[in-house]
Amino acid sequence: MTEELATLRVRERGAIVMATIEGEIDLSNAGGLLDELTSAVSNSASGLLIDLTALEFLDSSGIHMLYDLAERLATRQQGFAVILEPAAPPRRAIEVSGVEPASWMHGDRAAGLAALGET
Q: Which domains does the chain have, with CATH numbers?
């Protein structure tokens, strides 16, 4: 029996899809989370906000998942924002990944929503 590493909750706030991921994102679950998040964002949604403030661990597969989501949504002309506190270990993992700093990372929900045009 395998233990579920991450819990994903999705809800809508107007035209924004809001997702919360708690736990860990690694090679074993990043692909499944990517599929779930991609299908949760309809073509009529203006964007996706992912709250990772309760995320405990993020490996390179999770980082790749976030960049993949950003690219997919940009192709569909939809916004993307991720909430990660500045001192959170997962944020540091993204920052040192060797990829240019992510313009979609925000320190709190208000900043994430503002980046998606919401207040």
A: 6-115 (3.30.750.24)
